[in-house]
C-alpha cells in the first residue's frame, strides 16, 4: 500500500499539522492520565480503521510500559477485566464520540456522568480535545491511505 500523496511532506499539510500537533501537545501535557490518553487514541483509531495511528499508539503505549495483554484487549474492553473503572468510562466516551454519526445524540448523558465521576473538568476538557484531535489524525491518514507498520516509538517527538 502506498499513500495517495506525500501528505507529511506537503507545505500546506505541514501548516495544518503544526496546529493539530500543538493541540495534541497541550492535551498530552494535561492532567488526563497518559495511560487513559493512549487507550483512547488506540480505541478511536481502531474504530476508524486507521492502521497508521493504531500502529503508532500501540507501539508508544508498549514503549511506555503498557502490557501486551491490555493492548490486545482494547478492542474488547467491555469484556476485559484488565481496565479500571476510569479507563472504562473514558473508553465508552471515546467510542460514542468517535461514532458520533451513528449515535443519535452523540455521547449519552449516562456515559458523560460516568466519566465525570472519574475525571475533573480539566481532564474532561482534555478528553474531549483528545478525541477531536485523534479523530482528525485518523481521517487524514485513512483518506490518504497512509500505510501502517513502520512507526518507531517516539518517531514524531
Automatic annotation (TrEMBL):
Domain of life: Bacteria
Pfam family, one: CMD
Every Carboxymuconolactone decarboxylase-like domain range: 23-96
Name assigned to this protein: Carboxymuconolactone decarboxylase family protein
Lineage: Bacteria, Bacillati, Actinomycetota, Actinomycetes, Kitasatosporales
Amino acid at each position: 500500500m502506498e499513500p495517495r500523496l506525500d501528505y507529511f511532506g506537503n507545505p500546506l499539510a505541514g501548516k495544518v499539522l503544526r496546529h493539530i500537533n500543538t493541540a495534541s501537545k497541550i492535551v498530552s501535557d494535561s492532567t488526563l492520565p497518559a495511560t487513559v490518553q493512549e487507550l483512547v487514541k488506540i480505541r478511536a483509531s481502531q474504530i476508524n480503521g486507521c492502521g497508521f495511528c493504531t500502529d503508532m499508539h500501540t507501539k508508544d503505549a508498549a514503549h511506555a510500559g503498557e502490557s501486551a495483554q491490555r493492548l490486545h484487549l482494547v478492542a474488547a474492553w467491555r469484556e476485559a477485566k484488565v481496565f479500571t473503572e476510569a479507563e472504562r468510562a473514558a473508553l465508552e466516551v471515546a467510542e460514542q464520540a468517535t461514532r458520533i454519526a451513528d449515535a443519535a445524540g452523540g455521547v449519552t448523558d449516562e456515559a458523560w456522568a460516568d466519566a465525570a465521576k472519574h475525571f475533573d473538568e480539566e481532564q474532561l476538557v482534555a478528553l474531549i480535545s483528545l478525541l477531536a484531535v485523534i479523530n482528525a489524525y485518523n481521517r487524514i491518514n485513512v483518506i490518504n491511505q497512509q500505510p501502517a507498520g513502520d512507526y518507531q516509538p517516539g518517531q514524531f517527538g
